[in-house]
Amino acid sequence: MKYVLFSLLSMVILLACETKDKPENKMDLDLNPAADGFNESESDQKAIIIADKVMTAMGGRNNWDKERFFRWNFFGRRTLWWDKLEGKVAIQMHDADSMKIVLNIFDDSGRYSIRGEEITQPDSVRKFVQKGKSMWINDSYWLFMPFKLKDSGVTLTYSSQDTLEDNTVCDVLQLTFKDIGNTPQNKYHVWVDRTDNLIKQWAFYRKYDMEEPNFINPWVNYKKYNTLLLSGDRGKRQITDILVADQLDDSIFSEL
Q1: pTM for this prediction
Q2: What is the number of structural domains in the chain?
């Protein structure tokens, strides 16, 4: 009987040790691994944990990686379509010229048209393809920033606790950038709701050493799009016609 009890006790201890040795923390981190080039050494662990909670609240890393096709209207100025897997982007301008740009953000190839007529002059094509890529960088960040808190080149730090005008208690994170994007000198503050882990406000600073922001916008009225939770409400500015799709007609990315 003593031998049986000893064996059972040994098994319990062994299982406990195995459980203890299982990399639970690593498994949690693996749910939202940082992009190559994320500045983890200068980022705060507290801020990283909050960023992982934001990713979970928005639908989770698996869903973000899985979703491929997106469409949105940026402040009424233009509509963008994006194939995240293959890097294809189409941009339809809503102005008198009705310019359309189709490009690949992975290799910077592309074409464009004005009022339905394709322009083929090489210097002009290069100029407007790069302009289209800059539009995509800007416009996608206004919609998908919460998924990019641990992006390449980002340093993420915990700034403070703050309360919004509606008494929502938030943790404020700071994002600065190094050797990434068109404007690495920028800085952002984002307010993360402690209750639902969603970003409810952001502030933009044109220069990282500025004390006062250039603007502050809300991130409100989240809605479910396929498997992701997104907000297009920026107060006076609105991102509309949002779509997260399982497929899009490929002609969108080729026809001008």
Answers
A1: 0.86
A2: 1
